[in-house]
Amino acid sequence: MNPTDPHQQPDFLTEMRQDLADWRQWLARVVVLIYAVAAGLAVVAFTWLSEHALAGFALLRHWQPLAPLLWTPAWTAGMAWLTLRWFPGASGSGIPQVMSALNSGLAPEQRSRFVSLRLSAAKLLMTAGGLLGGLAIGREGPSVQIAAGIMHDARRWLPARSAINEHGLLVAGGAAGIAAAFNAPLAGVMFAIEELTNRIEHRSSGLVIAAIVLAGLMAVAVFGNSSYFGVIRVPGLGWDFLLPGLLVIVACGLLGGGFARLLHASILGGRDRFSALRARYPVRFAAACGFAIALLGLASGGTTFGSGYDTTRSLVEGQSSTPLLYVTLRIVATWLAVWSGVPGGIFAPSLAIGAGVGHDIALLTQMPGATPLIALGMAGFLAAVTQAPMTSFIIVMEMVDGHQMVLSLMAAALGASLISRWICVPLYGALSLAQLRRL
């Protein structure tokens, strides 16, 4: 093919012969595919372990309802000590670490502080450990760091002069982690574009898609191809839906923006007394956070413990309601879990909070069908916290099979994200920048 003539079509046999003859290219592809399968299996194992951890905590509460008052603070302190002592790079969500690792100016030994097989294993075990302690954390953000760390390790087996670079491996791993965690392949692609990189290079697009497909297949093979929160039931929506929908968007934007700003200030610390105590006595501070989380869990009837999947699913299916002040208690419980320094994400708790906002506004406006407002709340609050509206609305759409609400979910995510930008800076980007400055 003549590169100077953009209109000259390729010769089929010549192009095929050149492609098949390049053994380095095929070796690189095989290596990447093997690691993509490994990343998917790791997320599957993480999901399985997290669900059993939640079930274990539920058994503890069933055996002794007041046990969390001792168990949760002690377990939180232990998780915080392990993180500080052995795995400081595993703290928090995991998404800021992957964003930091994508910085082209990092040396290899610096990049290993954010992503590695060791950190992936620690993240998997310790996030599940946090759920065993009843902490209000999620596993989706950690799935990004777990999968990215595994994919990044593939670089050592790639042949010299391979077109696949570290940047492409990290982006593909992060996207695969989201896709496998949510069973949402489109969300994985959008997450790679919206959060991890401004654009996907042409040579990396196939790598990203291949990683998403294989990681997603591992999740589907084990858990099935059903939507995570079932299928949303949407009645015919009229003009009476407009005002409640706008209220949900505004409430999610304000609450989500304020929540993200609170997380930003708490994680980075300041000159206040609590930040000083956290810096001087981190393990004791984590224990205090765990005790407060246990109190909140008892006050809410147990609905603020864990990631909130059961509560969110029951709301989407219209099978239950939330207790008084559920949204407030869930926000505080999630904030304390993040502030404690234990590894864990905020995606699932944000979906639970958003669902609670939608449910409350449905009650306030006496909307006969609360399910559409609950879905709007999930998309709006997640978008406000992450300021990634496209990823947020696609995640919710795929998790509730809400294709009939595409435009409404998109409007909720974009509107809430816009309001959030008036209140706080993008959370993950700011945390990533702070990590790079510490180097």
Explained architecture:
- The protein is mainly α and 439 residues long.
- The protein folds into 2 domains: 20-223, Orthogonal Bundle (Clc chloride channel); 239-428, Clc chloride channel, CATH 1.10.3080.
- Helix content is 71%, strand content 0%.
- The protein is built from 20 helices and no strands.
- It has helices at 12-21, 23-63, 68-86, 95-101, 108-111, 117-132, 140-152, 166-182, 185-196, 202-223, 242-268, 273-280, 282-299, 309-316, 326-339, 347-365, 371-386, 389-399, 406-421, 427-438.
- Helix 8 packs parallel to helix 10 (202-223), helix 14 (309-316) runs parallel beside helix 16 (347-365) and helix 15 (326-339) packs antiparallel against helix 16 (347-365).
- It is globular.
- It starts with 11 loop residues before the first helix and ends with a helix.
- The model has no long low-confidence stretch (mean pLDDT 87).
Layout: helices, strands, pairs:
Layout: H1 12-21, H2 23-63, H3 68-86, H4 95-101, H5 108-111, H6 117-132, H7 140-152, H8 166-182, H9 185-196, H10 202-223, H11 242-268, H12 273-280, H13 282-299, H14 309-316, H15 326-339, H16 347-365, H17 371-386, H18 389-399, H19 406-421, H20 427-438
Helix pairs in contact: 2-6, 2-7, 2-8, 2-10, 3-6, 3-13, 4-20, 6-7, 7-8, 8-9, 8-10, 9-10, 9-18, 11-15, 11-16, 11-17, 11-19, 11-20, 12-13, 13-15, 14-16, 15-16, 16-17, 17-18, 17-19, 18-19
